[in-house]
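Cross-check.
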Amino acid sequence: MLKDLLDSRKCFKLVCGAGNEDALEVEKLVALYSAAGCKFFDLSAKPEIIDTAKRGLGDREGYLCVSVGSKGDPHVRKAQIDYEKCAGCHKCEEICPQKTIRHCKVLAARCIGCGKCYSVCRHGAISFKEEAGDLNEILPPLIEKGIDCIELHAMGENIDDAIDKWNDINKIYDGMLSICTARGHLSEEKMLELIKNMTAKRPAYSTIVQADGFPMSGGKDDYKTTLQAVATAEIVQNAKLPVYIMLSGGTNSKTAELAKMCDINYHGIAIGSFARKIVQRYIEREDFLRNEYAFAEAVNIAKKLIQSL
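Predicted model, tokenized:
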């Protein structure tokens, strides 16, 4: 059971990306990391992504979590380019970690809403379209397919919307839930108030708090990059709530070491950007799932990351 995995305090969660709707990439990632020992996978809330994740798992044990967002959350947005404003400098293409932009066009299925393209565009050509939908329509088909956790990204400024969506999720699903939140738009006090509000009526240890230090920032493998994830987890830990603590946002192979140095008693670490980056050159191969040599090389890389917990 997922609860047993969390209780072991050795839970590694691979974040495929709440906005990542590239079914083939998700299948490759799940196949690779499950072969390396990962048992928990964070996925886009799409029926076809659940299906492809299950294909990637094959006969291996694994737990599936779908992520949904509240208003203002970057995980549920897609970049779009105004071609008339675009100067064709290709800086957005160069910086995109998902290889989402080609010829000044965004491949929406691959966009995870990280905002790196927006940060380098000097011509105001890039904007975002939010894709949050009605959870009462989105979630039932996913639950029917078989999932083990639902995660709500509650890190926007609209706290009322986050609470409304959380209440909807609790009515629809009675399994393990996860709150992914950060201090980006909230003070420390507001973040804790939100978490306490959302967990007050839930049974003890039926909720994961994913302490997101700096969302979608895990491109580098150093202590500074993961510092905010550890600091955010410490805030949650000090509140002494009956929840599971998962570190995320800027997480990498240094996260566990720094967390232990700071006496953070975490239950797991969720890694997305960094986990995908270190195996990217392998999963980009068209023959990845058939090429035993390439697959084995990538598994060895993924194992080292998982073992860093």
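The chain has two domains: 2-73+133-307, 76-130. The chain has a mean pLDDT of 91. Passed to J.P. for a second look.
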